[in-house]
Write a structure and sequence with these properties.
With about 180 residues, the protein is of the alpha/beta class. The chain has nine helices and eight strands. Helix 7 links the parallel strand 6 and strand 7.
């Protein structure tokens, strides 16, 4: 359901000088908390408008596979056939070039996987715009035909690697810029 889950535990009498291994033993499980970090309301409409204009939208994320599928479904990306980063790494160059023509959701990817997906799309003669906000997105943003950084949440590294910076961090702004 696209929830991020945190586990909580406690322990009595913590020695602040104890090593990490010691700190992680003797804990009492307290529970789990699910947090929803939903996409902005306008993203699904923006994705639909992009598709109607002939622009293919692909989601490439570090999120868990099931979270990525749920978010993909919410914004209008087909989660069927979703690939994980390790599956990307296991593909031959030819197989990855074939896969990127059909797969719309990539999950649990590293910066290297993002660049591999990007390069496979480019090798298939696609012009690729890639968005990102974190340091892990900078290699993909830098290697994209159009690198787009988030201006509010984005790191300095990603903004410097980008061709353009979204001041409002809103995917719908990309759609509006293309329309303009």
């Amino acid at each position: 359901d696209a929830l991020r889950v945190l586990g909580f535990a406690r322990r009595e009498g913590v020695d602040p000088d104890a090593d990490e291994e010691r700190l992680e033993t003797g804990l009492t499980f307290l529970g789990l908390q699910g947090m929803l970090d939903p996409p902005r309301e306008e993203v699904a409409d923006a994705v639909a408008d992009c598709r109607a204009a002939g622009i293919r939208v692909v989601m490439v994320t570090g999120d868990n596979l099931e979270t990525a599928r749920a978010v993909g479904r919410t914004v209008g990306c087909d989660p069927e056939g979703a690939m994980t980063g390790p599956a990307v790494a296991d593909c031959s160059e030819r197989d990855l070039r074939d896969a990127v023509e059909d797969v719309e959701v990539f999950a649990r990817v590293t910066p290297e996987h993002k660049v591999a997906v990007l390069q496979a799309l480019q090798a298939n003669d696609h012009t690729v715009a890639m968005t990102g906000d974190g340091v892990n997105d900078a290699p993909g943003v830098r290697n994209a035909d159009v690198g787009i950084a988030m201006g509010q949440r984005g790191t300095d590294v990603t903004r410097e690697a980008a061709d353009m910076v979204l001041r409002d961090d809103n995917f719908a702004t990309i759609r509006d810029a293309v329309a303009e």
